[in-house]
Amino acid sequence: MTEVSSLTGRLLVATPALADPNFDRAVVLLLDHDEEGSLGVVLNRPTPVGVADILAPWAGLAGEPGVVFQGGPVSLDSALGVAVVPGGLSGEGGIPSVDSGARTKGDGAEMAGVPAADRAEVQSGDEPLGWRRVHGAIGLVDLEAPPELLAAVLGSLRIFAGYAGWGPGQLEDELVDGAWYVVESEPGDVSSPDPEQLWRAVLRRQRNELAMVATYPDDPSLN
Question: What are the beta bridge partners of residue 82?
């Protein structure tokens, strides 16, 4: 990329001025961002639909609340899995690999039923089978893969219906217009047990004037 600095892995936090109802108080994790456009998922839109209702094999790995989240207004009939591998993987910033001492239990009962060859690859310092790194410990899950491949290494999993997408330059224009705050993500954002409070929580942890925005009333007329 020569003209666009990638924001992949960062959060877009909707400003109070953003009028689009699809993104009111939204917290979006950017999964891809370059000169060709951007793609992300809204982290704080839980639906009433349980993961077990549409992707039963993955339900046991989904964090609480165990429901499908609406990732955005695009392709609502498609599903995306975003998951965290605790401790990260080797070869990035000195982060230990998944087969370090913290993960030694992976060769026990959690790997039962996984072929030995696949088990070895899951526990290697490479990306686990069925998981592709997006940023740090956060990555995309291949929902066509057997869940058993990842059961031993995943720390959390969210299932999203649909996603948020922007064409070339569209997100940059919205940033110039003041529609979004851009902040660093944390692995816990993906699996927040209280997603309705994520917008305020993300803003509150900022060490600048954005922390004050967290107190902004739900009804702007009260400000």
Answer: 140, 158
Amino acid at 19: A
pTM of the prediction?
A: 0.80
Q: Report helix, strand or coil for 119.
A: helix
Point out which residues pair with 161 in neighbouring strands.
70, 79
CA distance 57 to 162: 20
Other CB atoms within a 10 A radius of the CB of residue 87 amount to 19
Amino acid at 182: V
Residue-level pLDDT, tens digit, the chain, 223 residues? 335 678 999 999 999 989 899 999 999 999 999 999 999 999 999 999 999 999 999 999 999 999 999 999 999 999 999 999 986 543 333 333 333 222 323 333 333 344 444 443 444 457 899 999 999 999 999 999 999 999 999 988 999 999 999 999 999 999 999 999 999 999 999 999 999 999 999 999 998 889 999 888 765 554 4
